[in-house]
Design goal:
BirA Bifunctional Protein, domain 2; 2 domains; two-stranded antiparallel sheet; binds 3,4-dihydroxyphenylalanine
Length: 336
């Protein structure tokens, strides 16, 4: 008879030691990899539990079931602990990943300075809106003009004294930079039959020395209506309505004036902060202008008006110097 080299108590003590060691190691494992290494070390084919079980053959047969049961219970317990720990680590890993990748929408953003519409453009937009509301169509023409469209067709021949006030920049080919948007009247009428109602905004040029109220480049808006039976009353009503929309309920007056392309002609003043301010020129379209575009002045009549945008913007926003519009000084521009 072989003498058992092991007794039951020693083996069960070894199982208990393994249990304590394994449970602590599992609890302390901080990564899934470590956990897998522990599983192999304790429960793998060559793991510690297998090594202990390999010794069972050396126990008296009557002790084997007890130890077998203990070993199986331990194996189950370690498997459960490994699984539980694995779940915990997985959840922690996901939580850490979420925390790292999540976006905190309450953090302050990256601010970029926001631009806005230039006060000259917003003034143009306001004025166009008013005339579009009155049934007018927006029209445009070129800034580089011929002498014909800028002067001749507007009843201003080469020797006309009115040209003195509209000296401009001349191009080598004899063309020029338009001095007013009135040239758009001619271009539009040449291409369209009455009735017409247009509002034409655009850049204009004059050889003026720059100062607080003059710029060599500036903006105008032109108004033109031609139809059968239009009278000065229509002109007055339109201008009055427009100015009331823009300035509110302020006194206005029409003063007799002269322009080569209108007859009669008038200038319009607005009473603004205690002073009369001249804001536009206007009049009934001269019959010679209508003839130049092939309209019969016996059938059609029209009225026209023109004004500087800078002037309006300066009055509306209390701006003291026209040059502020063009110098791109943010301290100025950001006020609007
Ligand atoms: N074109 C003129 C200027 O630049 C302004 C003007 C006056 C336009 C009378 C008109 C008008 O249409 O009827 O000074």
């Amino acid at each position: 008879m072989t003498t058992p080299t092991l007794d039951r108590d020693r083996l069960s003590q070894q199982l208990k030691d393994l249990e304590a060691k394994a449970l602590q190691a599992i609890a302390e494992a901080s990564t899934l990899d470590t956990l897998e290494q522990l599983r192999v070390a304790y429960l793998g084919k060559k793991g510690e539990l297998s090594q202990i079980l390999a010794l069972m053959g050396k126990l008296p047969p009557s002790d084997r079931p007890t130890i077998g049961t203990l070993a199986n219970t331990l194996k189950e317990k370690l498997l459960q602990e490994l699984e539980a720990r694995r779940e915990t680590l997985k959840a922690e890993k996901i939580a850490a990943q979420l925390a790292a990748e999540s976006l905190d929408v309450t953090l302050p953003g990256v601010y970029r300075p926001q631009g806005h519409i230039h006060p000259l453009n917003s003034t143009i937009d306001r004025i166009l809106d008013i005339f579009v509301g009155l049934g007018y169509t927006v029209a445009n023409g070129p800034e580089m003009e011929t002498d014909y469209y800028n002067f001749e067709a507007l009843n201003t021949p080469a020797d006309h004294p009115a040209r003195d006030m509209q000296d401009t920049f001349y191009l080598p080919d004899g063309n020029l930079l338009r001095t007013h948007t009135s040239s758009v009247q001619i271009r539009y009428m040449e291409l369209n039959d009455p009735p017409i109602r247009i509002v034409a905004p655009g850049r204009c040029y004059r050889r003026d020395a720059e100062d607080a109220t003059h710029a060599a480049v500036f903006h105008q808006i032109e108004i033109l209506a031609v139809d059968e039976g239009l009278t000065f009353t229509d002109l007055k009503g339109t201008v009055t309505t427009f100015l009331a929309e823009l300035f509110g309920d302020v006194p206005i007056r029409f003063r007799a004036s002269y322009f080569p392309f209108t007859e009669p002609s008038a200038e319009v003043d607005v009473q603004w902060q205690g002073r009369w301010l001249e804001v536009m020129g206007c009049g009934m379209v001269h019959p010679a202008v209508l003839k130049n575009v092939g309209y019969d002045p016996e059938i059609y009549s029209g009225f026209a008006a023109g004004f500087g945008v800078e002037r309006f913007a300066m009055v509306l926003h209390q701006i003291d110097d026209i040059r502020r519009f063009y110098t791109s000084d943010l301290r100025f521009l950001q006020q609007f």
